[in-house]
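In response to reviewer comment 3 from the previous cycle, which asked for concrete evidence that the modeling workflow produces usable outputs, we include below a single protein chain processed end to end. The sequence was submitted unchanged, and the resulting structure tokens are shown without manual editing.
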Amino acid sequence: MKRYFIIIAAVLSALLLTAARPAGKTVRVACIGDSITYGMTLEDRETESYPARLQQMLGDSYVVGNFGKNGATLLRHGHRPYMEQEEFRAAMQWPADIIVMHLGINDTDPRNWPNYRDEFVGDYLALIDSLKTVSPDARLIIALMTPLADRHWRFQSGTKQWHDEIQESIKVVAELSGAELIDFHTPLYPYPQHIPDAVHPDAFGAKQLARTVFQEITGDYGGLQLSELYTDNMVLQRDVPLDIHGTADAGEEVTVRLGREVRKAFAGRNGRWSVVFDPMAATTGIKLTVSTRDRKFSFSNVAVGEVWLCSGQSNMEFMLKETVSPESVIASAGDSDLRLYDMKARWRTDNVAWPASALDSVDNLDYFKETVWTVSSPAAARDFSAVGYWFGRMLRDSLQVPVGLICNAVGGSTCESWIDRNTLEVEFPKILENWLGNDFIQDWARGRAKKNLENRTGKSDRHPYQPCYLFEAGILPLDRYPVRGVIWYQGESNAHNYAAHEKLFGLLVDSWRDYWAQPRMPFYYVQLSSLNRPSWPWFRDSQRRLLAARPGLGMAVTSDLGDPADVHYKEKRPVGLRLARWALHDTYGFSGVVPSGPLVRSAVADGERVVVSFDYACGLSAGDTSGMRINPIVGFEVAEYEGCFHPAKAEIAGETIILTCPEVKHPRIVRYAWEPYTRANLYNGAGLPASTFRVQADGLEGK
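The workflow returned the following structure tokens.
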């Protein structure tokens, strides 16, 4: 019965699409709207406005009328009601077969929405009823509003919030009126440079709007299309419902065969289709085919296993071939069940001025090279992330299932560049303002970006270090491909401002968990190593404290691996293995695997002594990176007053450390490994180092 109704729905959809263009009849399309429909700010609105572009796309069998009015409001109590304008009267004299409406932008004015929001739905329905009196059989298409860029002068004083509220009201209008709802927001949202005055799309933007209407009217979405991550050798996530999705022409039947299982779906009006397969156990060598009547994709050697995203900046990007003595590791990298999807940047952020081709590529979010899933081999692994490779290799050895790794790390990238635009607009809008000049961006990063953009001829400032950019260029293209979790190595480009990073990192985790609809998606990150940069002890401690901010986080300590003069230390194997320990312990339930080195739990003053307790403290010892030799414990300091720290003698007492210092009779503050490049040497029995920390010696503090 369910299949019967699906078929009927598809047939009706096809009939409706055909009805939009009866044989031998010119179809009249009326575009109702404000200055965006009119084409304000365009050099030649007669050819560049979205209705003009739509006419070009639809061809001679259609005639498109532009009834846009600059400054018009939908609200009849607004400052310029559309229904009182000459353009509305002209539309009423022009019976249409299709009516496309885009109104609401000017209703965000403080004169309008705050006062008359309760009238919006009723006023929109009244406009529709009026148009129906002259075009009773017309197809009604209502558009969600185009974005308002964060540069808008009222963005933070209510306009952003009101814009979001109006969008929800437009959805209600579409539901109540039975109109088709299209989205003018999503196609433009990642391209703020194409909204130069923060309100009106430029010629590129107008073309995007026209394409959206064209696709809705004709159902032509370019035929069957899939995410770029669907290739031979791909790995699908095991033990979760498998959502295979893509686009096709409206009403097309899509058949998906995964191994012996078959699912069918029909593409909706918006061109989207999706099928869901039951969770599968780990397996290899299966085939995936996706087909319509006119097109077929076939993918061989598909595996089902564990999929992880490896992201961040240059220390995650750092390739296996660049590590210490890589030859033997690379030679043994062949593994048919370790699969790599390596997203390399087209344009590196080296200290050079980019050519025009690079600037154009970056502007269009075409930043990553095309790639495919490859089976791990010496040739493939040598250029892959060293941290990612060792992480995946330990998972393979421990889980004995296929493992797929997606890497999209970008050298020098900022934390904010990986966060979605809406999150920053709502939670941290200041970081979007003048990003090439504000203090949230490190000096060197601003300078590097300015150098890369030196040859730009317009005002566009798109760059991988720009807030939101890498989410739009590197996360959105993943199209919610199912992953188990994330490993993350980033922070060097935010280490000057740990307070801002604390907020940004939480927003990053929330952003990605929301995007993948996994509220507790594992997110394991690397604490910065040792390096002679003064702010790093504070930053490392901040990263430690982030562990308590959200569930499902884990931190790999690397302060024992750094190089005092090189941010790109070459020993990456322990980093990948330490991240894998978190995954094995927390994600996969290997209770016998110790996930972390000692993490401070409390420091309690006891007369002239301080007793420091830790989590993961079994087998505390002093050691070093050259073989865990027995040494005095170094790296602890105590103070009674801020700024007056003295080295403390540290003695192991079971799973605690007892600190004494003759110079400090009443110790109140304890810190450990509090140097940019530290030789602190406290380890646990698993050979894992303790984290940098700073705590009050008079009570408890969460880890």
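Residues 331 and 696 are 50 Å apart (CA to CA). We consider this sufficient to address the reviewer's concern, and the full set will be provided in the supplementary archive.
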